[in-house]
Amino acid sequence: MKNQQDIARMKELIATLSPAARAYYQESREIMSNLEYDRLYDELLALEKKTGVILSGSPTQKVGYEVLSELPKEAHPSPMLSLDKTKEVGVLQEWLGTQKGLLSWKLDGLTVVLTYENGSLQKAVTRGNGEIGEVITPNARTFENIPLKIAFDGRLVLRGEAVIRYSDFEKMNEEIEDVDAKYKNPRNLCAGSVRQLNSQITASRHVHCLIFTLVEAVKDDEAVDFKNSRTAQFAWLKDQGFEVVEHQDVTAATLPDKVAYFAEAIQTFDIPSDGLVLTYEDIAYGESLGRTAKFPRHSIAFKWADEIRETTLSYIEWSPSRTGLINPVAVFEPVELEGTTVSRASVHNISIMEGLELGAGDQITVYKANMIIPQIADNLTRSGVRDIPKICPVCGGETEIRQINDVKALYCTNPDCQAKKIKSFTLFVSRDALNIDGLSEATLEKFIGAGFIHEFADIFHLDRHKDAIVSMEGFGEKSYENLIQAVKRAASTNLVRVVYGLGIAGIGLSNAKMLCRHFHYDFDAMRHASVEELTAVDGIGAVLADAWCQYFADEKNNAMTDHLLAELTLEEVKEEEGDRSLDGMVFVITGSVEHFANRKELQTLIESKGGKATGSVTSKTTYLINNDVNSTSSKNKKARELGIPILSEEDFLKLLEGEKHAD
């Protein structure tokens, strides 16, 4: 009877853990804290050991993510197993016994298998689900630190961890103004980068690969003799040009000091790590121990015992986003964790709040996942979830709780919520629109959340909120003054920028220019134009014309536009009566340019002569401009399929001269 109760509990644990693992590994989202997952996983493992029963679908029998992409698949010659783990140094000492070992970082990225033949990298395969991986050879060739050719001209098979350094991760996020588009963590970014279908994307992500295991090194049917030493293997790999994982020689007696060394080093370690790995130095001894169904016996993982502090939850802050999702953030009495002061942790969604029975005033314990990201470990008093806002903190619109798959979350229902319109404000201040320096997407989100901005015209009255802005994090007197000066400069602009900045669906910069020229820069005429009048403009079809008309059929949009125009001084545009030799022609520009500062300058020249520059090759394209005329790029291929001439810059300039002479 007792065994049946244990098995029933195992079924409950599998039902809880499986969707959490799927969400984390396959969908890059989190429905349970790492600490809670590990606790339940360990409970399941203990019950399996106690009962001798392993149920179908148990997470203890699965390794890594499922193979779901369109990349080629390949079975591994033998299963790639995960490692048994502990959080106790004493267990490591007992496991090592009288043997010598190597202690190294357990890196938090994506495991890959690299194969070299005759000195060249021939193949790279991800770990996948442990049985079948994905072939990512073109992507691996873009990794920043692996040799494409080595001195050893036999067959070499290695296992390594593809990682993205924290410093590179932060730089990439700094370049993304869209707050919601920022990458969540280096591990997920690395996994997505390594498994790209386009290796150019992988190359832009600064992926590194650190080798942690030599699987095979054979030349002329003879294995390289490493004197039965893992240390000798690592030294040989370094000589071949590989970057290997940092490792320290250990005995049972020296293990505590070496673990302490790594624990201190992780505070400034630039590579994501979620623990350590202990491996027997004696290769033959380790291999002789064999394996279990899931774990090899030659190595064991050590996971950091999280530093946990108790504190008081002050309140839940609700943070709206452009998707309408309102994220709960726990704000608590500041505590010291892993050497820094923390006072906030994302709770992700209402499901997690309910699981923790989280309410203001509760005594909670907090930790840093992987010693980096603040998380709530447990709620000691569990007063219960309450005070979920019925109105959006930004717009005051009604909220509702929605359950999507297995997750409950709070949403704003107001389609006109300013938080949802952050994209439109971001476009409005962008370089090709009003070009206002200092108004990043993150700053706009702060100002909208604080109620400073409700419509475009409000941006020109930010001086009304000087005291509040100066006191905001990241702002001061100087940055405030710089922002106000940028706003004043932006108030003198031209109609093309304004039309583009309104963000009407489908109306890009090129279309804005065409509209202004066609209507002779008369905005009232443009605003009141019919669908028939609009479709007479080159590049404006029925869909764009309908979007334009619908926009100005809305009284709110007209009022907002009038308020905006009242703040602006529009430049007078003298229409050019000169060279219109490219009237009716549509160009696509690709690749690098030599005779112009950049492609933008070439585009401006084309438009000044009546032509149009677009981004995609279609049947309406007149010419594709590419200095690499014989390139096999997708645009060149498309142009050839459609019979569209491909011009170099020289050809284009000759075309211009020819058109002039023809006049």
Strand proportion: 15-25%
First-to-last CA distance: 98 Å
Question: Roughly what is the average pLDDT, rounded to an integer?
Answer: 85
Secondary-structure-derived class: alpha+beta
Shape: globular
Question: Could you explain the architecture of this structure?
Answer:
Helices cover 35% and strands 22% of the residues. With 663 residues, the chain is of the alpha+beta class. The strands form 6 sheets. Strands 13, 14, 15, 16, 17, 18 and 19 form a 7-stranded antiparallel β-sheet that branches. A 5-stranded mixed β-sheet has the order 2-12-11-3-10. The longest helix is centred in the first third of the chain and has 26 residues, at 2-27.
In short:
The protein has 663 residues and is an alpha+beta fold.
Outline the secondary-structure elements.
Blueprint: H1 2-27, H2 34-51, E1 73-75, E2 85-86, H3 89-96, E3 101-107, E4 110-117, E5 120-126, E6 132-134, H4 137-140, E7 155-163, H5 166-174, H6 186-194, H7 199-203, E8 208-219, E9 222-223, H8 230-239, E10 247-250, H9 255-265, E11 273-280, H10 283-288, E12 299-302, E13 309-320, E14 325-337, E15 340-346, H11 350-356, E16 363-369, E17 373-379, E18 399-404, E19 407-412, H12 422-428, H13 441-449, H14 466-470, H15 477-490, E20 492-493, H16 495-501, H17 509-518, H18 523-527, H19 531-535, H20 542-553, H21 555-567, E21 569-570, E22 586-589, H22 599-608, E23 612-614, E24 623-625, H23 634-642, E25 646-647, H24 649-662
Parallel strand pairs: 2-12, 20-21, 22-23, 22-24, 24-25
Antiparallel strand pairs: 1-6, 3-10, 3-11, 4-5, 4-7, 7-8, 8-9, 11-12, 13-14, 13-16, 14-15, 14-19, 16-17, 18-19
Helix pairs in contact: 1-2, 12-13, 16-17
